[in-house]
Specification:
Layout lengths: L2 H16 L1 H10 L3 E6 L1 E3 L13 E3 H14 L1 E2 L6 E2 L2 E2 L8 E7 L3 H14 L3 E5 L11 H15 L13 H7 L5 H12 L4 H15 L13 H9 L3 E5 L12 H17 L9 E3 L7 H9 L4 E7 L11 E5 L2 H4 L2 H8 L4
Parallel strand pairs: 1-7, 1-12, 2-3, 4-7, 7-8, 8-9, 10-11, 11-12
Antiparallel strand pairs: 5-6
Helix pairs in contact: 1-13, 2-13, 3-4, 5-7, 5-8, 10-11
Length: about 350
């Protein structure tokens, strides 16, 4: 475990015992709704390598979270959040809480869904419709796969030689340090690039490393799994665009196409109600023009990745969430501090 995480774990335990964390949580959540943001849910043992640390929680961690939330919050489905176009305020002494999961990973069905069923807790999954039921992978995971391949074969780029005509490829392959840090730095660097440039970079990396450009296996849910979860009455769905493009890196016409294509597919598969279709900005990137397009194309609300709780005056097309991942929330006290805005 990283030293900074160990330090936060110790601090969280102290803040929990002294009651400061609970007082902070009560203050920050009073009269508001908290929307939690999860991504992948993985088994405690046997996690695959090359995954960003901020992209998952373990199954047992999620179980602890749900127990804590049931004791301290009113957990509601996302479609109950709005009343007359505004965030509704709690009807009892407990603040409102909503669970959301981005991307529609296949592991949700195996590890998160059983926890939700066991506790009868609702949640919403935001899916990129072009990936559901396919063997496609996000470019971030393909990048992690290629860096892992580089590590396994012991390839080291010579800074005096150009491995590729693309400077981004040379920069990534020539980086040093632990795999997780290299992956995080490379993803941060590439997020500003348009999708077609990122694709070319990955193909060039695969060529240099003599590797497949994508991991084997299936990453995302199938439509059959989605229908089974929807039928449970616990899991609802929303749009994460069609192709998971970062919307601020593409033109307005492409943004509109991403929004409409995803919405039509969700309606065609009959897993959303025409009266309530929520949206989630990929990577949290949006601006007022994109938010306007989301509203105009018929979405009911949109969630961001900005930390915060939502009061009655919140912009329903720029709703805050509380990002959750395993490193920061593995213990009850750390989860408490994360919810309270301390970490």
């Amino acid at each position: 475990m990283h030293p900074a995480i160990i330090l936060k774990s110790v601090m969280a335990a102290v803040l929990s015992r002294t009651g400061k964390a609970y007082r902070n949580l009560e203050r920050i959540s009073r009269g508001k709704a908290g929307i939690l943001m999860y991504h992948r849910v993985l088994p405690a043992n046997g996690r695959p390598p090359g995954i960003e640390p901020g992209m998952y929680v373990c199954e047992d961690t999620l179980e602890r979270h749900v127990r804590f939330l049931k004791a301290n919050f009113s957990i509601i489905a996302l479609d109950r959040l709005l009343a007359d176009g505004k965030i509704q305020t709690p009807t009892d002494s407990k603040p409102l809480c909503i669970l959301t999961f981005d991307d529609g990973w296949a592991d949700f069905f195996n590890y998160a869904f059983p926890v939700l069923k066991s506790h009868r807790v609702p949640a919403t999954i935001f899916v990129p419709t072009d990936f559901i039921g396919t063997d496609k992978w996000f470019w971030t995971d393909r990048l992690g796969f290629l860096l892992l391949r580089q590590q396994k074969i012991g390839f080291r780029a010579d800074p005096r030689e150009q491995q590729s005509e693309d400077t981004a490829v040379n920069k990534i392959l020539g980086s040093s340090g632990p795999l997780a840090e290299r992956l995080e730095a490379a993803i941060s660097h590439l997020k500003a690039f348009p999708p077609e440039h990122i694709e070319n970079i990955l193909l060039n990396m695969a060529s240099v490393l003599h590797a497949d450009p994508s991991p084997p296996g299936r990453a995302f849910l199938t439509w059959e799994e989605i229908r089974e979860m929807a039928a449970s009455g616990l899991v609802s769905f929303g749009s994460h665009t069609a192709g998971h493009s970062i919307l601020t890196t593409i033109g307005e016409d492409m943004v509109r196409q991403e929004l409409l294509q995803s919405k039509r597919k969700l309606l065609a598969e009959k897993i959303v109600s025409p009266g309530f279709i929520p949206f989630c900005y990929p990577n949290g990137n949006f601006d007022p023009k994109i938010a306007r397009l989301v509203r105009e194309t018929g979405y009911s609300l949109a969630v961001s990745t900005e930390y915060g709780w939502n009061g009655g005056d919140a912009d329903i097309y720029a709703l805050n969430r509380i990002p959750i991942h395993n490193d920061m929330t593995a213990s009850r006290s750390m989860f408490l501090c994360r919810m309270a805005g301390i970490f």
